[in-house]
Amino acid sequence: MEPVGDHVPEPASGKTTIACNLALGLGRANNLRTMLFDFDLGDPSIHTFLGLESRHSLKSVLTGRVPLAEHAKRIRENVGVVISPQPEPDPNKLILSDEIGEFLDGVQDMYKPDVMIFDLPAILSGDHARAFLKNTDCALIVALAEKTRFSQLDVCEREVAESTNVLGVVVNGCHPSAVKAE
User: Relative to the CA of 63, which of 39, 41, 138, 182 has its CA 20 to 30 Å away?
Assistant: First the structure.
């Protein structure tokens, strides 16, 4: 299992787009099983990005009241998505609960994904993204060109590195017209 969290210093940097595209791109490798989780529980958006719906809240799945098989969506033969169809009233309590670890262990045992991608809230917007990093092998940091300040990126990288490995940094929103050839 390679759980990957994606983190941004601040909201609206394109982390959900990166997470979805990463999951879909990995889905092209037929021998690689990938699962994408929308754990940005205060502002979930993977369901909108991918056009998915669910009758159940993610909380009902994480607490075992609804089986994951009834909630998860398959978007390719080897890509599954666990959405959060609406914001959770207390995302900190849910993401920091003991149920999260048990839920992830159960997912690993049952589905045996090769890669698990977690779309988490911006790292500088609260503590629960940082606390969740203990469940990941590495994190990909997403920054928005011309908006994310280097000081924010430095703080984000340092905080992520305290809990997990930094896989790298994606600079999102770079426009070819802004790059000058020499």
Answer: 138
Give the C-alpha separation, 128 to 172, whole Å. Answer: 23
Confidence label for 178 from pLDDT (cuts 50, 70 and 90): low
Q: How confident is the model at residue 1 (pLDDT cuts 50, 70, 90)?
A: very low
93-116 pLDDT tens trace: 888 888 888 899 999 999 999 999
Q: 155: burial class by Cβ within 10 Å (0-12, 13-18, 19+)?
A: middle
Give the Cβ contact number of residue 14 at 10 Å: 18
CB within 8 Å of 181: residues ≥ 6 apart: none
